[in-house]
Structures are given as structure tokens and as C-alpha cells.
Design goal:
six-stranded antiparallel β-barrel, 6 strands, alpha+beta, Thrombin, subunit H
Length: 119
């Protein structure tokens, strides 16, 4: 269904977990970088914004299977913790800040994550 509605790809950015074993890195003088994790298929919906609010507000519909696979990879206790640890979402060349995560359930299983982000 998500492929039929758009099937876009987004990239979540996470802080790199490994720091080089170098004295300058231990002092914080070296940027450890980020890890990029792609999610696909994703539906992207534009949400209305107010005049004094963010420039763009988007909602990303991410399949539960993709999130579940990444939870095991990141050793996160749940999806909300994983999204909170993300630095942002890269989509269409722009970086968005995650402001809200909601989960849709069917028969007790999370099948869809609605991630709201602003530019």
C-alpha cells in the first residue's frame, strides 16, 4: 500500500557510535560523524503550517517492518527511543527535525509509524 501511495525514500541520521582512538577525538576536537539509515517505502504528506511556525511541516508514514528491523540493528528498546536518538531526517535534499512520533497498531502489532518533522 505504501508503494502505491508514493514509495519515497528517507534517510534518518544518527550520531556515529564509534569514536577514533585518538587523543584529539577524546577531547572532542574530531567530529565523529553520522550514520545514515535509509527507510523505504515511505509516504510523505505535507501538513499545514501557521504563519509564525516552521517553513515546512511533513509527516512521514514509515512501515512497521522497516522500523522493527532497524530496532534490532540499533539495539533500541522501542521505536520511540530510536526516533528520539535520531539527529533528523534527510528528505529531498533538506534536513528535518523530528517533533512527534505516533504509532498505529493492528491486533497488538505496530504496523505504521507516523513521524512528524519540521524544517
Amino acid at each position: 500500500m505504501l508503494r502505491a501511495l508514493g514509495g519515497d525514500t528517507i534517510t534518518l541520521l544518527f550520531p556515529a557510535l564509534t569514536v577514533p582512538n585518538d587523543p584529539s577525538a577524546q577531547l572532542g576536537l574530531v567530529d565523529p560523524g553520522v550514520e545514515q539509515v535509509n527507510f523505504s517505502p515511505v509516504v510523505v504528506r505535507t501538513l499545514p503550517t501557521t504563519g509564525d511556525g516552521p517553513r515546512r511541516r511533513l509527516q512521514f508514514l514509515i512501515p512497521g517492518t522497516a522500523v522493527a528491523a532497524e530496532l534490532a540493528e540499533r539495539n533500541a528498546p522501542n521505536a520511540e527511543a530510536m526516533f528520539e536518538s535520531a539527529l533528523g531526517i534527510s528528505y529531498d535534499g533538506d534536513l528535518f527535525h523530528i517533533v512527534n512520533v505516533a504509532t498505529e497498531y493492528f491486533a497488538g502489532t505496530a504496523y505504521l509509524f507516523l513521524v512528524e518533522a519540521v524544517e
